[in-house]
Model the fold of this input.
Amino acid sequence: MAEWKQLMGGKLFITDLGAEQHADAPGGGFTVGRYAVWAPIRKSDRHQIVEVGGDLTALMAKYRIPEERVCLLGVKGV
Done:
């Protein structure tokens, strides 16, 4: 998967799940943000989620992520 490594390897990026996600938990449910920020793990070729939120513009600004590194997941027909 050389293309993925060229695009996102060692870089911060955001995944857009396309809709807010809801989770159930003891005592009630809660809303999980639509956007996940991924950061590279030191000394690895992998990434980890560092923040989840509902405001894409704020996350892009906070982590200085350009629009080119916002990935849409689970979107059919795009």
